[in-house]
Amino acid sequence: MLTSGTMERFLRVGAAMLGAAGVDAPRREARLLLAHALGVEPSALLAIGRTEILEAPAFPALLDRRAAREPLAFLVGRQGFWTLDLAVSRDTLIPRGDSEALIEQLIRLRPSRAALRRMLDLGTGTGCLLLAALSEYPAAFGIGVDLSPGACLLAAGNALRNDLGDRAAFCCGSWDSALAGGGFDLVLSNPPYIPTPQLSGLMPEVVGFEPRRALDGGPDGLDAYRLLCGRLRHLLAPGGLAILEVGQGQARDVAALGERADLRLLDIACDLGGIERAVAFLAPETDR
After folding, report:
1. Which of 6, 191, 192, 277 has the fewest CB atoms within 10 Å, counting from its CB?
2. Using one digit for the tens of pLDDT, what is the confidence trace for 48-64?
3. Release factor glutamine methyltransferase N-terminal domain: from which residue to which, for each copy (predicted)?
4. How does residue 100 score in pLDDT terms, banded at 50, 70 and 90?
5. 57 is in an annotated binding site
């Protein structure tokens, strides 16, 4: 069991073990795990000499867990998103770069930083979407809702962690059932959208460790959108904006659901991989 050695030896052994387990970029991940085992930032490894002997008793257990395909973010307990540093746990999905497409789209559609005052994030998870939006719109206050009490506690902690605690509140409930009313300038949501038959084919890191309730979108992956689109009209202020994350190939179906619910399709934006990822709707300017 490797607990002592040079950094190069740690990385060589770690990369070989992770590569054999099918982990992508095994040397990079071994480096991140070694930094975590040493209690330092990854950049601090650059200052370590080639022959310096390191003691990292936690490294073998971390390697074993990663080789079993437990996500790296769960092992180190954190994940970067937008400009934020977020704590993560098995109560929520791990924030992914694909979701940043919603924040990019929001800034493009609402360039004035004074444009938004009341935000809502349904299925908030770590709070990543709400907190990223709040970080860009300093006049806004936001509410995040999640079915999981653990997720709500985590998101509240992330608000404090990123100096946004006085501008965000979190409550536990099923979608908007815990809310007394609407009038939101912005509603964000990354709902479950994986079709149930496809769940077993997801990466081992996802299907084995992330919460199924945050993944399973029903037989065709659209169950949550049917519910959400029916509620957005009542949650949004006149002229309010809703942005929903969607899975690959779902954007047009979700757009149709929103339009049938008296919302105007405003924009469909792609993530960095070119996949249509963010669907934006506009509420009517006046109530019916």
Report:
1. 6
2. 887 899 999 999 999 99
3. 11-77
4. very high
5. no
DSSP-H helix ranges across the chain: 7-20, 26-38, 59-67, 72-76, 100-109, 128-136, 149-161, 204-209, 223-235, 251-260
Return the pLDDT at 2. Answer: 84
Which of 200, 202, 225, 242 lies closest to 94 in space, CA to CA? 202
pTM above 0.90, yes or no: yes
191 is in an annotated binding site: yes
Three-state secondary-structure class, residue 42: helix
Closest CA to 189 of 239, 259, 233, 123: 123
Enumerate the β-bridge partners of residue 79: 86
Q: Is 146 annotated as a binding residue?
A: yes
- Contact indicator for 147, 213 with CB cutoff of 8 Å: yes
- CA dist 279 and 250 (Å) reads 10
Question: What are the start and end residues of each CATH 3.40.50.150 domain in the chain?
Answer: 78-282
Q: Please, which residues have CB within 8 angstroms of residue 168's CB and are 6 or more apart in sequence?
A: 127, 130, 131, 134, 141, 142, 143, 144, 155, 156, 159
The annotation status of 92 as a binding-site residue, yes or no, is no
287 is in an annotated binding site: no
On whether 125 is known to bind a ligand per the annotation, the reply is yes
Are 260 and 229 spatial neighbours (Cβ–Cβ below 8 Å)?
A: yes
**126 appears as a binding residue in the annotation:** yes
Polymer length of the chain: 288
Give CATH 1.10.8.10 domain extents, the chain. Answer: 4-68
What is the CATH T-level fold of the domain 78-282, as seen in this structure?
Answer: Rossmann fold (3.40.50)
238 is in an annotated binding site: no
Looking at domain 4-68, does it have CATH number 3.30.750.80?
A: no
